[in-house]
Write a structure and sequence with these properties.
Elements: E1 5-11, H1 18-27, E2 38-41, E3 44-49, E4 54-61, E5 64-69, H2 72-81, E6 86-93
Antiparallel strand pairs: 1-5, 1-6, 2-3, 3-4, 4-5
Length: 94
């Protein structure tokens, strides 16, 4: 696996929950509802697989959302997909 790309987003709403993020990912066709390759836990969504066999993790922290992926393209597109709940704060390589 290549280096993980990390994007930090600032939440634009206070009442963001992991379940709401999961719904946005299903709506945007990133994952399927009840997909066994997608692990949803308190404060985190982790997915491995899909058409390009990629990996991403979305972590919900106080006032921020962190997206990590092994695909720079996927990181940017996920950040765009979630723009209704968070805006880009920083782009870092891990």
């Amino acid at each position: 696996m290549s280096a993980l790309r990390r994007v930090e987003l600032k939440l634009v709403r206070e009442n963001v929950h992991v379940e709401g993020i999961h719904e946005l990912l299903v709506k945007g066709c990133w994952i399927e509802d009840h997909d066994p390759r997608c692990l949803v836990s308190q404060g985190e969504i982790e997915f491995s697989g899909g058409f390009h066999d990629s990996y991403f993790k979305i972590s919900l922290k106080p006032n921020e959302l962190i997206i990590e992926s092994d695909s720079p393209w996927e990181t940017e597109v996920l950040a765009e997909e979630l723009k209704e709940i968070a805006v880009k704060k920083a782009l870092l390589l891990k």
